[in-house]
Structure to design on (530 residues):
């Protein structure tokens, strides 16, 4: 009984303790749950808050910087800071002799010639285009035309000869140096400064060629020599601006003089004194400024173009401005991909193209080679390890500046041997005329000319070989008693056979000129009658 009583008491005790135990257990569980909940929903630490704000601020700063850069690119414009006219003028001055500067007087006289107008004669065309055609003197200097047209052209030559303008030009050409003093530039910059005087200079050259023919037909040796002297002086003066275009115009003026003199030597006889005077008037070596100096002027023009087609970051670098390339070159290389580049947003295109510093380095590399080769003969250039054409062809499409502007210089360099060859040939033709005046017969070979009629016998600059010379029987249609010719670019004597489509190809074109020569003492080319 006592055992059962204890068991019963124990059960009662356990029963009485259970609610307290349960409550205690529940309270412990609740506390643990609350602790866990507080741990789960606790606010983040301060370090994490700061990190997120830093990332946000940095992101905003980067976006702001990118937007600012984009705005600068879109609104960027060329900012030409360097005045290359100062260097251009210094280059011209350094390459010319001391003495009076004839450029201001020559420039003013050419401007007055340009404004001279038409002669007040009956039958002169009122249409400006027809008037300009008559002033070209094609009928007079190149071939046969109807008499009325020839009379108009003769009247125009006499009109210019009788004007004060021609005397002003002749007086200006007496000066020993021609340095530009005023630079009127537009947005094109330095590249536009050589243009104003060159067109009227070439027009004056055509008039003086007409003067040569008319003087020869009148037997006026003094006027013939005066006109020939004017042509050679005008060619030299035209190179006062050290640039390629001036060299090309000077070469064309020399060609005008040489072509006319070659024709006159066929059509007329000259005595030894006249031949001697003509020889002394011909330039020896280069015409005016050396070609290497002119090409250094072209380098300055390229540098000026770079600063006008790129932005400036203040450290000699910057981005390409596509709209400037299109405006200055007249071509849009982005048409297929982007269309027009006139909108400011098109400046973004410049990001993927070479920067200003890289473009300038490419230009200087090319110009170093061009200037060096200008001092070499044609054959030395061919052997030069730097191939100008290959360099240009291998420029990537990204180099839009170099691909558009550098090829212009190759023409200046490649034209040099042709006019050097013409000068040498007309010198030999005058010496042949002098030999005939002295001996009453033609020389058996060109070697007989030196040293009696010419100091040394010049070599053809195109072929690097002696000129070809062959005597022939004259006819009524062709009164020439000999042919003087260049062996041409193929270096072969083809018996003075010319390429009918383009005879000058033998002097400059290795493809079309192959198999042909070029004859210098040419007949006047007939112009179709109208």
């Amino acid at each position: 009984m006592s055992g059962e009583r204890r068991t019963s008491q124990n059960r009662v005790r356990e029963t009485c303790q259970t609610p307290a135990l349960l409550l205690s257990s529940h309270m412990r569980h609740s506390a643990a749950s609350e602790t866990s909940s507080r741990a789960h929903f606790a606010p983040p630490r301060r370090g994490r808050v700061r990190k997120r704000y830093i990332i946000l601020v940095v992101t905003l700063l980067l976006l702001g910087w990118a937007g600012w850069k984009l705005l600068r690119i879109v609104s960027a414009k060329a900012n030409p800071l360097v005045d290359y006219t100062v260097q251009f003028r210094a280059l011209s001055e350094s390459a010319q002799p001391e003495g009076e500067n004839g450029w201001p007087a020559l420039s003013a006289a050419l401007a007055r010639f340009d404004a001279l107008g038409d002669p007040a004669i009956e039958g002169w065309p009122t249409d400006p285009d027809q008037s300009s055609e008559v002033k070209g003197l094609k009928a007079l200097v190149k071939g046969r035309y109807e008499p009325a047209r020839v009379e108009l052209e003769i009247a125009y030559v006499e009109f210019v000869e009788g004007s004060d303008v021609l005397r002003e030009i002749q007086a200006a050409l007496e000066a020993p140096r021609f340095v530009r003093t005023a630079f009127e530039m537009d947005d094109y910059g330095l590249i536009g400064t050589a243009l104003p005087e060159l067109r009227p200079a070439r027009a004056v050259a055509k008039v003086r060629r007409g003067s040569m023919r008319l003087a020869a037909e009148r037997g006026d040796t003094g006027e013939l020599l005066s006109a020939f002297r004017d042509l050679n002086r005008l060619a030299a003066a035209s190179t006062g601006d050290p640039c390629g275009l001036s060299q090309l115009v000077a070469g064309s003026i020399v060609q005008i003089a040489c072509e006319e003199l070659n024709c006159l030597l066929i059509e007329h006889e000259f005595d030894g004194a006249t031949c001697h005077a003509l020889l002394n008037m011909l330039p020896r070596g280069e015409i005016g400024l050396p070609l290497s100096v002119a090409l250094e002027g072209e380098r300055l023009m390229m540098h000026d173009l770079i600063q006008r087609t790129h932005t400036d970051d203040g450290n000699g670098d910057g981005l390409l401005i596509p709209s400037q390339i299109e405006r200055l070159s007249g071509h849009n290389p982005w048409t297929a991909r982007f269309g027009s580049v006139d909108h400011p947003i098109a400046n973004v295109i410049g990001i993927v193209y070479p920067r200003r510093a890289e473009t300038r380095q490419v230009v200087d590399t090319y110009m170093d080679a061009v200037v060096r080769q200008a001092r070499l003969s044609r054959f030395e250039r061919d052997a030069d390890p730097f191939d100008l054409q290959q360099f240009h062809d291998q420029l990537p499409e990204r180099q839009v500046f170099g691909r558009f502007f550098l090829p212009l210089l190759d023409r200046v360099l490649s034209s040099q041997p042709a006019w050097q060859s013409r000068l040498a040939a007309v010198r030999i033709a005058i010496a042949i005329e002098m030999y005939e005046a002295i001996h009453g017969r033609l020389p058996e070979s060109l070697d007989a000319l030196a040293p009696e009629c010419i100091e040394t016998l010049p070599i053809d600059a195109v072929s690097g070989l002696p000129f070809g010379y062959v005597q022939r029987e004259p006819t009524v249609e062709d009164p020439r008693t000999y042919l003087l010719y260049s062996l041409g670019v193929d270096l072969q004597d083809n018996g003075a056979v010319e390429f009918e489509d383009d005879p000058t190809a033998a002097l400059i074109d290795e493809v079309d000129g192959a198999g042909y020569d070029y004859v210098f003492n040419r007949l006047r080319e007939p112009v179709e009658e109208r």
Remarks:
- The CA atoms of residues 183 and 193 lie 6 Å apart.
- Residues 76-83+294-405 form one domain.
